[in-house]
Description:
Blueprint: H1 90-110, H2 114-118, H3 125-137, E1 143-146, E2 149-157, E3 164-173, E4 176-179, E5 193-203, E6 208-215
Antiparallel strand pairs: 1-4, 2-3, 3-5, 5-6
Amino acid sequence: MTISIHVRYRLLIVSVIAALSVVLSGCQGSAAPGGSSSPPSTTSPTSAASTPSATPTPTVAPAYKPADASGKAQNVPVPEKPALADENSKAGLEAFTKYWYELLSYGYETGDVSGTDELSSKGCQFCIGLGDGIREAWQDKRWIAGGKIQSRAVNIQFVVGMTTQQITMQIIQEKIQIIRPDGTLLQDPTPQTNVASQVVADFDGTRWIVVDLGLVR
Length: 217
């Protein structure tokens, strides 16, 4: 589509001839000498209107979707390690242990247990058993629905000056279902649990490591 715009320009020429007669009478005072005309006032150029900057579109994180019979969990948030978790203190031990269980919960939802593997000693048999169980559940294109963990500190036996410390946590875990690629269950679901877990951790000078793990009977 072509748009034509017709504009007329008019040029107006104006000639102005001014004659100024000054009559000075003898009774009038003479004009002050040295009078000078005022310089023309200068107008500062109008500053260009600033163009408003475009408002950036906020980035929306992909929505988290838990696993079900139709597919795996999506966009599971990766646990962030709090700075306090590397502190050799009572509060640091609690922060570390909660973080360790967040990594375990992430492992159930994603099949990735590298986080708990890294923060567990090779001698922690219970830790190894948990990791192996998760890896096996995720074999052959299977996945886990449920299994999310909540942890709460119950008792912290922190002794100043000792590198090995002990903490008891209340662990609440959702029902666990292992699902095949066709949406059917591999086995009967594991019911929701609410147990007390005892964690023994060593501080190696820079961070905590779980050296033993078990249930409190």
